[in-house]
């Protein structure tokens, strides 16, 4: 049996009730055991809910990529809820005026609890659907953003409560730097082979441009792009596979780095040079060229034929029409060669 926990231990991760003498006791907002006192939506113990107002809103977006600010939740907000309208290939992001953030700067967090603006924010992600919530009150503004990777129909619903007596803070606290996604690298295997820069658009959400210059994100960073550093290299064509008539030539085709000569897999398949090409070495002396009546493999075997290996059985193999089987063709190549030649003469 487990030891009894200490008095005053919370009964659960999201409960105000405490363990007393080994039993979970209800604690009211007035701090009294077994009290029925509760906070209203404004955070006032036994209040009537009239000292604050509920702020609700919807954010919808159909075009654009990168981080896009949806709303600034002011300091002092309580009962914050943010929910996506439907599952989508995007991410909710939240950031306060300090270093606290969720899913910012292109870093996607795992679901869990995060300390932002003096309150605990619960981040939930189930598949492609997300939501955020916080009890509050917040001690600093929270910037709610969405990270979009392509144009799409996207929407979220948010709500929170704020005291009717809340005074507005500094204007610059309500604005934050936002930025687009990075553009393509400025070089494609140019200069130092892939070393270049890529840029993005950085802007302040305040129309008057009042944002903290010390927290401004960079607009330009070094990048590498090796997509054009590899090219197809070809060897010399081989000799024609046939001493007469039609044949094939082959060559080595490899994808290699332009500068280092290393092999790679970044060459365009559509631009790959051919590995084989037809060739012709003049008319054969034989009356019938077996290259024109058999497969390339049969033709190759014909030229290497040194006579029948099974002289007694080759006639039977020919009569049973087994020459088309490679196992018998190799052992009776001379008899089978005549068989194919006679077939062509009969067709002509």
UniProtKB/TrEMBL annotation:
Assigned keywords, A-Z: Disulfide bond, Integrin, Repeat, Secreted, Signal
Pfam families: ADAMTS_C (PF23178), ADAMTS_CR_3 (PF19236), ADAMTS_spacer1 (PF05986), TSP1_ADAMTS (PF19030)
Coiled-coil segments on the chain, per record: none
Domain PLAC residues, every copy: 301-340
InterPro entries cross-referenced by the UniProt entry: ADAMTS/ADAMTS-like, ADAMTS17/19_C, ADAMTS_ADAMTS-like, ADAMTS_CR_3, ADAMTS_spacer1, PLAC, TSP1_rpt, TSP1_rpt_sf
Biological processes annotated in GO: extracellular matrix organization; integrin-mediated signaling pathway; proteolysis
Gene Ontology cellular-component annotations: extracellular matrix; extracellular region
Keyword Cytoplasm attached: no
A GO molecular-function annotation: metalloendopeptidase activity
Subcellular location as annotated: Secreted
Primary localization: secreted
Protein name (record): A disintegrin and metalloproteinase with thrombospondin motifs 19
